[in-house]
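Quick question, first post here. What does this chain look like in 3D?
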Amino acid sequence: MLASQDSQPWTSDETVVAGGTVELQCQVKDHEDSSLQWSNPAQQTLYFGEKRALRDNRIQLVRSTPQELTISISNVALADEGEYTCSIFTMPVRTAKSLVTVLGIPQKPIISGYKSPLREKDHTTLYCQSSGSKPAAQLSWKKGEQELHGEPTRAQEDPNGKTFTVSSSVTFQVTREDDGAIIVCSVNHESLQGADRSTSQRIEVLYTPTAMIRPDPPHPREGQKLLLHCEGHGNPVPKQYLWEKEGSVPPLKMTQERALIFPFLNKSDSGTYGCTATSNMGSHKAYYTLNVNDPSPVPSSSSTYHAIIGGIVAFIVFLLLILLIFLGHYLIRHKGTYLTHEAKGSDDAPDADTAIINAEGGQSGGDDKKEYFI
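> Answer (accepted):
Ran it through. Tokens below.
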């Protein structure tokens, strides 16, 4: 019984992507002096031990020992799918099966249904299709980084009876923000092993213009030159600009230029101005209130000179004040300090306000003294 189990070969199922290479390994513990053999699903012998039996250069011997026979099949086709048999010709003959599954790689998807250009608030439907997948692939949609929820993927078997063609559609309403957006259809399939296989469609959306008035300079003053820029945006870009001033008839200017120019501002130019930007999709009007400020004061050269001189004088006065403060502190600390030098042998004490130093005359038995005042 143990000998029978040891003589039983074993192998494993394999999955390979079409065009790839698959290895088929067969092993046995006790070969009983017999060689291992590999056969294809049509029961054609591929290898018997080291001997090639089928003339197919895609099939190569990898390893042949009494306990193992391993072969490889390169450039695998969908037709290679099926059950391969490993046999050992003992009594009785023992076999093991290996199911080879070949994955069909889906083709690059194709997007259809786009009609250019679209108009703002239109609804559009796009279609995506990919063929050649096995098993059937799944399709997904994105607009930029945003996921779009399309219809569930539909699968239809191809004429070869092995692969599938899959399709999906997505419908959404476009806005002006979608102008220039990229719609992507991607195929998800195990054969791709995480690789990207997708197709993109850029869409164009026509929408009414917007406008905004920008002054240059931003804070206009009397006597200056002023430009009012009418910044129009849209698809298509506005080609005509109409300038008006409230209370003024007729309109100021009808032009293809965006700017209204004031060569020399006056107070009378103050007021509310309107700019209407127009394209073949419509028009939009923007407003700006102009308040002309008084002219900027221009400093004269003489006042600048006086300001510099005044600053220097102030700095000198500051230094003099610092010196006077230090001198005052010094005098306070030394006020009432006297130097007294007594003549030799005198016992008289010095007066608080007078220093006596060797004054002449005056006392009995006395020495000559001199008096100095400090």
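The chain has five domains: 2-102, 110-203, 209-290, 299-330, 336-374.
The first strand starts at residue 14 and ends at 17.
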